[in-house]
Design a protein that fits this description.
By secondary structure, the protein is mainly α. The protein is built from 3 helices and 2 strands, in the order ααββα.
Length: about 90
């Protein structure tokens, strides 16, 4: 290992290896830690989630079009759907 590099803890790569409650808690924590100025208002966020929930690309909380965590993309004020659904 190169000098100065630190080992990072292993993250779970497959959803089947992640406890759903733990996953949800981590996403909520990331959203809570975001600066309010970076977040869309609640109505916009809810509308985006509603649109994504009906999308054929949605799979296990991920966007199959771009690979993002849907909740994190939806909450960002300046984010956009890669297929212009919102």
């Amino acid at each position: 290992m190169e000098e100065g590099l630190q080992k990072k803890p292993c993250t779970k790569c497959l959803l089947k290896d992640i406890d759903p409650a733990q996953y949800e808690a981590r996403i909520k924590k990331l959203i809570d830690l975001m600066d309010k100025s970076e977040k869309a208002d609640d109505k916009v966020y809810d509308k985006r989630l509603q649109i994504c929930s009906r999308c054929s690309y949605l799979k296990d909380a991920f966007c199959g079009a771009c690979g993002c965590y849907v909740e994190l993309r939806c909450v960002k004020k300046n984010a956009a759907c890669p297929y212009d659904h919102w």
